[in-house]
Amino acid sequence: MEAPVQVIETKRKQNQNKDPKKRRSRLETPLQRNLTAYGFLAPWLIGMLFLTVGSMMFTFYLAFTDYDLLTSPTWTGMDNFSNIWSDANFWDSIRATLVYVVLSVPARLIASLLIALLLFKEVRGIGLYRALIYLPSLIGGSVGVSIGWKKLFATDGPINSFVGIFGVEGPNWIGNPSTAIMVLILLSVWQFGSEMVIFLAGLKQIPTYLYEAATIDGASRIKSFFSVTLPMLSPIVFFNLLMGTISSFMVFTQVYIITGGGPMNSTLFYVYYLYQQAFTYYNMGYAAALSIILLVIIAAFSGFIFLTSKYWVNYDV
Amino acid sequence: MNKKSSRKVLRHLLLIIVSFIMLYPILWMFFSSFKPDTEIFSTSSLWPETWTLEHYLSGFGNDAPMNFGPMFFYSFLVSVVVVIGTVLSSTLTGFAFARLHFTPRRFFIGFMFATMMLPAQVVMIPQYIIFHKVGWVNTFIPLMLPSFLGTVPFFIYLMVQFVRGIPKELDEAALIDGCSKWRLYRSVILPLSQPAIVTMSIFAFYWTWNDFFGQLIYLSNPELYTVSLGLSMFMTNMGETQWGNLFAMSILSVIPVFIIFLVFQRYLVEGIATHGLKG
């Protein structure tokens, strides 16, 4: 949800590039034209220069230093990176984050697609159902909801009283390393709304004649789902997969409030660990190095999704 | 009952079940916030046996363990300023990208899209250090200033897409009539972009309202706590005993988002669906 479909955008750019140079106004010189444009772009240019490009270069510098915010940074070369390599907490955080990403992203994709199919058909009150089901996604990232979620899975919380009805004694969800991460994954799955809305929009764009043709060919509902709906939705699956993966790597509030990284580092998610290094221990250089590794990991995952996409994403209509 | 209408009933039943499961956590918190502390975990029924407003009242006033009044005000202040900053910077930049010619235009647009994939954590540490050096830690400036500098590429993208959908003939007519580029922006594009502006305002508001990370690192002075911070500190300091109060304040903390959602629901859902996808 936070970002657009890159691929559609590049296609669009290719179509649009033909005209700009020809449309040169007779009244303006190129210099004037640039000056006007830069006037409009000034805020963005300043932000880009200092808060994006400058900051990124600064991160790269810091990653090779030791810096505690009080004394000036001292150059330590590759020390941070070699320390990270032998840092047990780092590996715990990598493991926890990967488990989280690998389980929560597909689960959310499937949930959002199934619910989108359910919400696609116009029935009475569909607007209300859509709104109600979307609502958790809107507030799910907030501290308030995380607090409720923590208590929902407490030993004396409603989830355990519910399973108690069936005579099962519920586990200590948050205190147990193998279930704590499930609580966080469930919270992420519960917020499938933005993916769902995007799926809904995609479903609306599938031409009905494709379904008619499939029916005439004798395809069952399930068959036409797999041979019409899914291929037609593949660009959207791609988009949701990419954005979901990136945002899952960055989950923070929920960990901070619900598990605090525990028990036994089982939910020490990467960004939470990065936060601890930077703002609890003030190891700014170390944290900068961690953030560069995060950048590399996310780039690798995105690159992988992009590369495989040509085998399963279908752009023909 | 014939087959068609029983199908319909089944569909509604399914929809109701799914909606209920989705809403259960929120409903549980909501009703719990009206229960006396002793009742919250002793009954599994959603509906309170005795209703009390005590939890809501004890979150406010100077004798409260934590006074949430100023926190709500600060959250609101920061969110509103961020909305203003976002609208200003994103419409200016979006207009320039969509309508003005400059070099290197393609490079800048490409760059803007590239930053969309950049994890915020990569620039967070230097930004913190910069704001720390300038002495703005423990002020609201680090939370507000970036929005004026167009640092959320998603909003610029939204605006670019929207402006591209506005007929170019309008620009040409305005320019022939002697409009300057500024007046074109101010009097033609801006009023026509209202739907995009509403969408980005809503998102900017509720991302800021729900934000925790930024507020956590930049505000450590309890007198400047926002709602997110207040809630998290309340939970770690005395939460284990005061779940009723925590739930009450948590419910209050999601109400602004809830209201905006109710009022602008159509814009929001369609905003994601159409701006997010149509090329």
From TrEMBL, chain A:
Do you know which PROSITE patterns this protein is assigned to?
ABC_TM1
- Provide the transmembrane region boundaries: 35-64, 98-120, 132-149, 180-203, 224-243, 255-275, 287-307
Q: What broad class describes the main subcellular location of this protein?
A: membrane
From the Swiss-Prot or TrEMBL record, state where the protein is found. Cell membrane
Keywords, comma-separated and alphabetical: Cell membrane, Membrane, Transmembrane, Transmembrane helix, Transport
In what ranges is there compositional bias, type Basic and acidic residues? 9-19
Query: What are the boundaries of the region Disordered?
Result: 1-26
The membrane topology term of the UniProt record is: Multi-pass membrane protein
The answer on whether this UniProt entry bears the keyword Cell membrane reads: yes
Domain named ABC transmembrane type-1: residues: 94-305
User: What name does the UniProt record give this protein?
Assistant: ABC transporter permease subunit
Which organism is this entry from?
Sediminibacillus dalangtanensis
Automatic annotation (TrEMBL), chain B:
Q: Does the keyword Glycoprotein apply?
A: no
- CDD domains of this UniProt entry? TM_PBP2 (cd06261)
**Membrane topology (UniProt):** Multi-pass membrane protein
**Keywords (A to Z) from UniProt:** Cell membrane, Membrane, Transmembrane, Transmembrane helix, Transport
Chief place of localization? membrane
Q: Which InterPro entries match?
A: MetI-like, MetI-like_sf
Q: Domain ABC transmembrane type-1, which positions?
A: 72-264
Q: Which domain of life is it from?
A: Bacteria
Pfam families, sorted: BPD_transp_1
Where located? Cell membrane
Q: Which family does it belong to?
A: Belongs to the binding-protein-dependent transport system permease family.
List the protein's name.
ABC transporter permease subunit
